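Hey, can you fold this one?
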Amino acid sequence: MTPVPIVRRVFGDGPFAEIGEPALVVVDERSRTVVVGGDLGHVQWSGSGTADSRWTGHRIGVYEQVGLRCRQSVRSRYPVRSLALHPVLPLLAVGTGSYDGGYSFNGELLLVRLDSGDVVSALPYPREVLGVEWRGETALRLVLAPCDDWENPQAHEQGHTVVVTRPDWGAVGRGAIGDEELAAPAESVVRADNRAEARRTLAELAVSAGRPWSVRRRVWAVEGTEDGRVLAALDGILAESWLPSGERQWAVEDEEGGRQLVPASDGTSVWTNAERRSRRRGGRWETSAPRVARIAVDTGQVLETLSPGVSTVLVAGGQRVILRPSDGHRKRPERLVMLDLDGPVEGPEIGHFDLFNHSFAVRRASRPYVLVGTDPDEPHREKWVTALGADGTSRPLFPHSWVPSEHHFGGPAVEIGQSLVHAGTVHHGHGLQPGGAYTVRRSLNGSVWWQHRADHPATALDTDGDTVYVADNSGALTALDAADGSVLWNTRLEVGGAPTTALSLAVAPQGHLLIGTVDGRILECSPPE
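Sure. Predicted structure:
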């Protein structure tokens, strides 16, 4: 039997964690079941975007009404628009879909078997399904968005209502509903927004079960301390601290939340940066000022706050923390900012940054490393792994791509001795291809020690020196031998039997694994012996 890590504790747990931000809730008294459609969000931010390839955060969760245990969690390619439990069969109909932003309304009709867990996409082609409703045991009423808005400015307010019948809906196969069954004239349709009602319903159900509920999503960074505390940065929280007892010690709130955690040189505080997205306020789009803060680990006190003017990535290594501007709209080179306890110091110019090409957060770095393009006009091409000296001077080490015919996107990394282990994906015109994700160990002159190829991009990695732990966006956690890259074990992450996905990962000083998940939880795991 393959050894797997054991989840010893879960920080930040709560009911309905698996679905993230709820969009729709159905409570079925007959089966004593609660069904929730929700969204965990994307797994990219302005400093890193590679892990979002082939990812979907849309979820359907099936819960027991008594105790609120998650019985089933289903991924959906599109947002959940409608839910309906069959009146007799253990079967759930789910309408999903969205507008693609330029032409089509895409989605699916999913039929979820609650006994076997099988999921069938029943339509012959992508089509947004706005409404599902059972009309007895054999008839299912569907409200479909128009196929597209080509020459139809009313398409966003219209729908096509049909009733599809089958003697046994449990036997319906993939794409089994024909085109002719979906034909119907267009009529006005109200697209309901059920998010506020969904939040109220879940809060009431949680109170009834004695388990207060709030939305937690996306733990972007996690770190362990020498005294056993756990630090995390996540949506809505710039940083938080959990005591060894399992109690949350403190939390610093933020409108968007923290994305990175980098220990400061004093050993008692941590740097973190906040994401800033444009939001619509009063009929216009606004973006709050970027925020970088240093927080006391013991108390959670914000010791200083910087407003660098543009969004920035924290680059760790040595005694200084470096701010690298990450404003993707600026094509010209930007200046680094060198941070220490005496205040920020302007550093040298460095090439343009974009979230796919230049993401390169190196854990356990003895000095700062960045990816820099050699062509100022096309900085995404011919990137080099570059080391930064204490005074900010740069020294190119080796080309980021070790395969001349491949263009590599950046990703998470870790330093081991005189080498770097880094992950990313291979660019392809049709999207990420099978085997297009990689983890590679290279010496500081660029020679390849080993490489490991996978189908899904890494979200995080770290090492204890002997083993490299790699999490990817499929929900897998893989342990590679640091010496030769061979697979020691591979497992699918679960909490309470329900699948989850790691977004951040750290080997704590005590040797156990800390895993921050897309659903806002922090797992403390014992690696197998």
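The longest helix spans residues 195-208. Let me know if you want another pass with a different chain boundary.
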